[in-house]
Amino acid sequence: MRWLITGGCGFIGVNVVETIRKNDPTSYIRIVDNLSSGSEAMLSRVCEFTKPTGSLSTPAGECHLYIENITRADVAYSICKGIDVVIHLAASTGVPVSVECPRTDLESNVIGTFNYLEGARCGGAKVFIFASTSASSGGYNPPFHEKLFPRPIAPYGASKCAGEAYCHVYHEAYGLNTVALRFSNIYGPHSINKKAQLVTNFITGMMEGRVLQIFGDGTQTRDYCYVGDLMDAIMAAIDKSEQIGGNVIQIATNVETTVKQVSDLIFDALDYYGNISEVNIEYVNERPGDLQRNYSDVSKAKELLGWSNKVPIDEGIEETVLWYLKNYKVS
């Protein structure tokens, strides 16, 4: 199998590479990343790689990294050649960033996605997995599900919604087996560079003794899914892509957890394993565009993928804390 992973040096991308390597060490992996949030150091934790400068090739068992921006159409056309599966993770992520810079969000998440759909179509790829978000649904009371008419409340949700639409078009018009997976709040190992993410921010902040902020009163909820469960969902979507092409599927746990509960779980694990017995949290104003409640119905994932999460949040937080205690150096 020949894989292309956009955003392959980031949190989820590194986990994908690790999963592919464990499942099939002879696979060829090609990675495109501009290193805006990921890093070569993160990728080197899970595989050896080179940065070729000559013509493209697909040698079995090797991993090639190309430091490029997904907004470049010419790069997308060439980089998709000879690839079987495209996993499109690269994006401008997060609601606050999209509110501040909506044009950047559009260029990365709409134009960037279009570029790699076109690259996959022209290059002969068989499968295209698109990383979307429940923020595409927008202003509804949860649980979110795929039948809701999209009405996003922030540019991030709007741009991901556009990506989902293009994926559906490329399946219907061109026969590309596209699957859009709406990731919930993913957490777990290799997330060091995701400092804006709650779990990462609170684990590293408590280890460093920083003052941590909770936006609002801490009762806002999210649906937290462990990254290992997400890997199972991605691989199931690839395996079943011929049967489910063109679909949008929520990948979540159907469990609502408050920010305060997550904070307490992190503190308890660090207290037990890391001898950290004090934490300083301040409550500040809510951020524009943030939802008060967010969790998803995963019935469609069970039906089409045969998938449901296996790792409850207390176990997932414990595993993540243990990974950080082993791999994160407090400066």
Description:
The chain has 331 residues and is α/β, with parallel strands linked by helices. The protein has a domain of 213 residues: Rossmann fold (3-Layer(aba) Sandwich), CATH 3.40.50. It has 12 helices and 13 strands. Helix 2 links the parallel strand 2 and strand 3. The protein is globular.
Summarize the structure.
The chain has helices at residues 11-23, 40-44, 73-79, 95-100, 102-123, 155-174, 198-208, 227-239, 241-244, 259-274, 299-305, 313-327; strands at residues 2-6, 28-32, 63-66, 85-88, 127-133, 177-183, 185-187, 211-215, 221-222, 224-226, 247-251, 257-258, 280-284.
Gross morphology is: globular
Global Rg:
19 Å
What's the mean pLDDT score?
95
Contiguous helical run count:
12
- The H-level CATH homologous superfamily of the domain at 2-187 and 225-251, spelled out, is NAD(P)-binding Rossmann-like Domain
Distance linking N and C termini:
41 Å
Percent of residues in helices: 40-55%
By CATH reckoning, the class of the domain at 2-187 and 225-251 would read: Alpha Beta
Total strands: the figure is 13
Oligomer: single chain
Give the helix/strand class. Answer: alpha/beta
**Strand fraction:** 15-25%
Which stretches are low in confidence, meaning pLDDT under 50 for 5 or more residues running? none
Order of helices and strands: EHEHEHEHHEHEEHEEEHHEEHEHH
